[in-house]
């Protein structure tokens, strides 16, 4: 079993999403000791944001500027890791109603025609079927229900883009209201960790 563990929270040891992804991966390892985990910290090993030079670069990078070639190779390696994975654990805090730009840069390297999707006469087809994605979703306020749900471009985007890749098994471990006071923060974290410990989002991953 191949697992990719992705963190994108910028708060380091204070990041709740990092705390939750670590708990999810620990639970997976407890259930499946044979699981191979590849870890990517998108903050410390940051990819460049997508550019025209990257898109237009030839398959053979021998004549490409060395810095650009290195970045393209890193993106290709992350795509290969994604394609080889059975389960993808993603830490995704909500920043300004969406995902961190570091996480978007990673997703942009996965969205490659002929690799994770293709266009057909019947419409787009995802090519990364059969995988499970578990997202540790953290938010300062409450966006899962009520009027504020219209401002959620974090979970809705992730479900859409992974669905576009053909992945329909996308689960969210959610900690909301983290900025609404210390008691609410601790309650939200405890509830998320309880969900992880009970294995509610891990059954299909194990």
TrEMBL record:
FMN binds at residues 15-17, 94-97, 138-141. It comes from the Bacteria. Binds 1 FMN per subunit. GO terms for molecular function: electron transfer activity; FMN binding; oxidoreductase activity, acting on NAD(P)H as acceptor; oxidoreductase activity, acting on NAD(P)H, quinone or similar compound as acceptor. Its cofactor is FMN. Its EC number is 1.6.5.-, 1.7.1.17. The keyword Transferase does not apply. It is an enzyme of class 1 (oxidoreductase). Transmembrane segments: none annotated. It catalyses: 2 a quinone + NADH + H(+) = 2 a 1,4-benzosemiquinone + NAD(+); N,N-dimethyl-1,4-phenylenediamine + anthranilate + 2 NAD(+) = 2-(4-dimethylaminophenyl)diazenylbenzoate + 2 NADH + 2 H(+). Coiled coil: none annotated. SUPFAM superfamilies: Flavoproteins. The keyword Flavoprotein applies. Keywords: Flavoprotein, FMN, NAD, Oxidoreductase. Gene3D superfamilies: 3.40.50.360. Homodimer. Quinone reductase that provides resistance to thiol-specific stress caused by electrophilic quinones. Also exhibits azoreductase activity. Catalyzes the reductive cleavage of the azo bond in aromatic azo compounds to the corresponding amines. Belongs to the azoreductase type 1 family. This is FMN dependent NADH:quinone oxidoreductase. It comes from Sinorhizobium americanum.
